[in-house]
Amino acid sequence: MVILKSIGKKYPVMKKLHKGVNLEDFWALKDINLDIGTGQTIGVIGRNGAGKTTLLNVIAGVLSPSKGDLLVNGKVMGLFNLGVGFQDELSGRENIFLNGAILGADRRKIEQRLDAIIEFSELGNFINMPLGSYSQGMRLRLGFSIIANLDFDILVIDEVLAVGDALFQNKCFERLVEFKRLGKTLIITTQGMDLIERLCNKVILLDHGSLLFSGEVLEGINRYRNLLNTEKFFVGLPQQKRQDLVENTKKWADNISDWGNKFGGKEIVIDSVEFINKFGYKANRINTLDNLKIKVFFTVRYKVENPHFGIAIFRNDGVYCYGPNTEFDRLVIPELKQGKGYFMLDYYSLLLAPGGYRVSIAIWDKNETLAFDHHYGYYELIVTGPDNKRKELLSMPFRINCPSIGHRLAYFFASRKNNPDINLDLLADKFGQISNDDNIKIECIKILDHNGNSKDFFMTNENISFVISLNYTKPFSKDLYLWLGIYRDDGVYCQGVTTLLCNRKNYNIFFPKFSLLPGLYNISVGIWDSAGNKFLMYHHGVYTLKIVFNRQDHGTIFLEHKWLWKVV
Description:
Layout (H helix, E strand, L loop, with lengths): L1 E16 L2 E17 L4 E5 L6 H9 L6 E6 L3 E4 L12 H11 L4 H15 L14 H13 L5 E5 L7 H16 L3 E5 L3 H7 L2 E6 L2 E6 L1 H17 L27 E3 L4 E9 L8 E3 L4 E9 L3 E2 L2 E8 L4 E3 L12 E2 L2 E9 L7 E10 L6 E14 L14 E3 L3 H12 L17 E2 L4 E9 L8 E3 L2 E11 L7 E9 L4 E8 L5 E9 L4 E11 L4 E15 L12 E7 L1
Parallel strand pairs: 3-7, 3-8, 5-6, 6-7, 12-20, 24-30
Antiparallel strand pairs: 1-2, 1-4, 8-9, 10-20, 11-13, 13-18, 14-17, 15-16, 15-19, 18-31, 19-20, 21-28, 22-30, 23-25, 25-28, 26-27, 26-29, 29-30
């Protein structure tokens, strides 16, 4: 329990006058009255300079109030600056004892908790190395781990929750949720309103040292936002906002070494996951272009508001394939009450090339700050189909338009013949280069929209035609193939098209739905000689294509899908 009665805190401030210097009082806190009950989690919000840190320092006993009365019932621990008192020349292990002593823990208690502190920090053998060799993230891990494993009744936390990488941040959040459930009193200040909503059951709003509001979380946050908007109103009228097109997306997994981990606050727990093929059977081997349903069963342990579901597919090397969620798809889930439930994502056609993939399943808070439960890269998915020697990522449907029956028959029989084993390794160091052949030349390459207009700027899911015009100076071998390659701008090979040359000059490779997600892509064209196992000519990555979208998404390819969910 914490009670503040008419608390004020002042600092002397020097003010230069015409004939000297005068000291004036600056009141960082003014007449603060609060009653914080045992087991409450309080969020302290306000603009920079509002007095938040000063208030927390007074409650923690770091600062004495200039006026008023403070009553604290229980042991208080303050988390203001992770690792205060750390010494670079000492090892991580030695700094645990030093920092713990500064925080008020006796040596015997630290020795009892030493293994738990080291395990929580995940520093491994680094714990015996000098602190001077640590990165800032490693220092933060150690500092929070010490706090997280010491005894207290009241924990005061000031803007230090962004600890290390995303997985460790979630681990820290889970520990705070655990403290909350154990009945600890938490007093937190942060500019992250999503964290305040998620963790706190009461909000305190300060401004210029005064208490403006104390009460319900959402009401306090709305008052704070109104305060910010009021201040901006006098600066000038806000400009009319327009909905900008998304020009890029997340293209890689954050850290594939963390695949296989589960983390989250556990308000909701994912119980099991099923991959269902087009026949309705459970299977994690799905043929390319087939239907795939992913069904996720979960238990709601504590009622949550405004959650959303997410599923992400990555290739085994970390390439982000697709990661839709119900928030991106503008589906509203007002709340999930206690009980059992499931959600299901139905992919109409899996446009991924054969190979190995990993799948993440998550249930998030509304701002996707900290997961309720996240199984990161936890599930294996095998996409089956023709041998993928070229390591293509995608299998977008396309067709090659032919103007005459003779040409169509030629393409029909060519399509029944196995595609040649084009060795793209021969182009590994040729990106951005052109090599021509004396007998076959590319006259032009056009990228056309559905109206036949040439452009290099398209929306996701538009149809696109690649029209390639060749010029032959003499008859060519029957073992020649035209190759079109589509690459992401970071070098990932998305998809290729190979077709037998049939003594014609124009080739139209048509994608009815070009489903690449936003970003910059490079186009390559070449003539492959299967008999000589070489490229006769190539224009490798010299043509660019920009894709934009009118919605958010993660990954490389948009997969048509729908969501279903139910809680019973």
